[in-house]
Description:
Helix content is 41%, strand content 26%. By secondary structure, it is of the alpha+beta class. It has a single domain, classed as Nuclear Transport Factor 2, Chain: A.
Amino acid sequence: MIKKLFLLSTLTLAMAGCSTTDSATESTTETTEDTTEEVKVETITEAEVDEARERWAEAIINIGAASEEGMEEATEKAEEVIETLYAYDEGAVLFKPTKAAELPFRATKEEALSYFVGGDISEDSGFALEPWTDIRFDNHETIIDTDSALASGEYYFTSGETGDETKVEYTFGFIRDDEGNLRINLHHSSLPYGG
């Protein structure tokens, strides 16, 4: 009889302990759920990606046009392009420009600026200073993953000096910044393989 009472008492205490643990867990879960903010992420659209590419093309053309007024104007325009279209302030940017061999990747704003208008890197003569009069895209494919997007294809640059068109292959990656604007966080550009 004493054994039965002892077992019954032990079982009752064990169940009470489990019950308390469950209540504490529920309470913690509720507290956590109450303090969690719901963050709504607006999915990037293909139209936004197209618009972002067109803004980039227009900006490159504008840098070249500004160079006709002087290098100071072209540099200011290029700094504005890097500041507003690229995601250097958001995190890492994977930028591999077309005509870059000595320093093939441009990890900083200063390195990107040198590529567009010339500067500290000896191989840079200022890609955007051509000037280009037209840049058109032939997009191969776009991949959208809610808050990021990738687009790949060919773009064609028309020289303002010769009228010749140069075909270049590209991959752009985009993320959305805190203000809702698309920013370039990946830009790989290369001439087609000629082998």
